[in-house]
Every structure is written in structure tokens, then in C-alpha cells.
Specification:
62% of the residues lie in helices and 10% in strands. With 180 residues, it is mainly α. It folds into 2 domains: 88 residues, no CATH class; 75 residues. Strands 1-2-3 form a 3-stranded parallel beta sheet. The protein is elongated.
Length: 180
């Protein structure tokens, strides 16, 4: 749905404010976790929007719920929740890169050892075909030992970075409570 100013509006309709939040979370209102369904709904809509397209989140509540004092804090609660999710993603990314560094150190060590061993064993084996098989096998093992760090640094970090950007985008979105 598009608002009067051309901004895309993502509408969330609920019968009560409490349905927006996880009922098991004992945190104060503005720090509560969102209900899983609400989070998935918002994230899936924002993911489908063109990059950089402006959007608002409009929470439709019955008049008696919209009049409650808590309704004024819904925007802040949404922003806080998605900011926390973005920070958790950043922690996950740091952990992934830490694992990548450790894996790379191990992989390079194994590669050096395998390359050295391939040359040593190849020189010790009189049968040239067998020597070549041992040499190539050790070289393959050395490169396979680097598979995981290469995978981390080429591919694994991208979905996490996209998710962080998506959460930051939702956290920055204006939230309006509307009766209806």
C-alpha cells in the first residue's frame, strides 16, 4: 500500500498491543522481543521492497488499544528490537571471521605441510606413477584443508551482512499507530 506522499506503508493489524510482542518475554515494554510472526511479516515485506525505497510501518489497533499509553512506545520498541537483531548479526559476523582466521591459519599450515611432504615422499618412492599419485594426493589434501576458510571469506559472510542491513533498515523505519 502506498501512502499519500508516495511512501510505501506496511500495515500490521492486531486486536491488542500485546499481540505484537512475545508474551514470554519479561522485559520492560520498550525492550520486549517482537512476536516471531510479526518479525517475519515485517522482514519479508521489507526484503521485497526495492533497495532504498522509503517505507513506513503502520500499526492498526482498535480505538481502545490505540488510546493506551503503551501505543506511543510501539515505534521505539520496534526500533530497539531490530537494532538488537542487527547487533546480534554483527556479533555473529565477528565470530564467523574469527573462525575464518583460525581456519585459515590451520589450512595454510596443513597446505605447507602437505606440499613439503609431497615433495619428500615423491623423491623417496622409486615408482614414478606411485610417486605422482602420492604427490597429487597430498596437494589435494592441502587445498581441501583450505576449503572452509575460502568458503567463509568468499560466501558465508554475505547473507549475514544482508540480514544486518535489513534489520537496520527496519529499525530506522518510522512507525505510526492508527486506529482501525
Amino acid at each position: 500500500m502506498t501512502g499519500p506522499d508516495g511512501t510505501i506503508e506496511i500495515a500490521v493489524r492486531t486486536r491488542s498491543i500485546s499481540q505484537l510482542f512475545n508474551s514470554f518475554d519479561p522485559s520492560p515494554f520498550r525492550e520486549k522481543d517482537l512476536d516471531t510472526g510479526v518479525e517475519e511479516f515485517l522482514v519479508s515485506w521489507v526484503r521485497e521492497l526495492p533497495p532504498g525505497a522509503p517505507f513506513n510501518i503502520v500499526v492498526h489497533l482498535p480505538p481502545e488499544e490505540a488510546a493506551r499509553p503503551e501505543s506511543a512506545g510501539i515505534g521505539e520498541a520496534f526500533a530497539h528490537y531490530f537494532q538488537d537483531r542487527a547487533e546480534a548479526g554483527e556479533n555473529e559476523l565477528r565470530e564467523l571471521f574469527r573462525i575464518g582466521r583460525r581456519s585459515l591459519a590451520i589450512g595454510v599450515g596443513v597446505l605447507v605441510a602437505c606440499l613439503t611432504a609431497s615433495q619428500v615422499f615423491a623423491a623417496m618412492i622409486p615408482n614414478r606413477t606411485a610417486a605422482r599419485v602420492v604427490e597429487e594426493s597430498l596437494i589435494i589434501v592441502g587445498w581441501v584443508a583450505n576449503w572452509r576458510p575460502i568458503e567463509i571469506y568468499l560466501y558465508d559472510w554475505l547473507p549475514i551482512r544482508r540480514r544486518i542491513q535489513l534489520f537496520r533498515r527496519v529499525a530506522a523505519a518510522p512507525v505510526r499507530v492508527q486506529e482501525g
